[in-house]
TrEMBL record:
This is RNA polymerase sigma factor. One of its GO terms (biological process) is DNA-templated transcription initiation. The keyword Magnesium does not apply. Residues 28-93, 131-179 form the RNA polymerase sigma-70 region domain. Keywords: DNA-binding, Sigma factor, Transcription, Transcription regulation. It comes from Pseudonocardia oroxyli.
Length: 189
């Protein structure tokens, strides 16, 4: 009879192997879903939880040389990175609450935060006002008079003492500047 050799079970990456693609894939396969569930429970947002998991493995890859299996298991080390990433994500959202409100999942989603229409309207108004402050005054006035107040172009042009074509140009370039300002603010359309 011949000797039967069995391959060693693959439980996870070898210590220090997180700096290789194979090691990182093994770690992701072993712990990715668990890390995702942890982040989802903490943040209540599927997209943010996915970003946290991605950030965990990016940080693990960058700092693979700091992992010491004698101090902690790989799972514990990854979860400590995840805790920090969750805190960073929560701080990012707290620093820009309007961004999360504008990009939230539909309200019938089980993970969508509960906000009423008034809160959303207040945040939307604040975002538009802030973006309007960032554009040139003549563009801001043209947009405010025609789009926000609903006044006819001819009336606004006569009041400002400019040709109607100039008013339309200000509106056109003002809207372009407004989109750019909102992009700089991180508002996703």
């Amino acid at each position: 009879m011949g000797v039967v050799r069995r391959a060693a079970p693959v439980a996870g990456p070898a210590p220090g192997a997180l700096d290789t693609e194979v090691g990182l894939r093994r770690a992701y396969t072993a712990y990715g879903a668990e890390l995702y569930r942890f982040a989802l429970r903490q943040l209540g947002d599927e997209g943010a939880a996915q970003e946290v998991v991605q950030e965990v493995f990016l940080r693990a890859w960058r700092r693979a040389d700091t992992y010491d299996p004698e101090i902690a298991s790989l799972r514990s080390w990854l979860f400590s990175i995840a805790r920090n990433a969750v805190v960073d994500e929560a701080r990012r959202v707290a620093a820009r609450p309007w961004r999360r409100t504008l990009t939230d999942a539909p309200q019938d989603s089980p993970t969508a935060p509960v906000t009423d229409g008034l809160d959303r309207a207040v945040v939307d108004t604040w975002v538009v006002e802030e973006a309007l402050r960032r554009i040139r005054p003549e563009h801001r006035d043209a947009i405010a008079q025609t789009h926000l107040r609903g006044r006819p172009h001819a009336e606004v042009a006569a009041e400002l003492g400019i040709p109607i074509g100039t008013l339309r140009s200000r509106i056109f370039y003002g809207l372009k500047a407004l989109r750019l300002a909102m992009d700089e603010m991180g508002v996703e359309r």
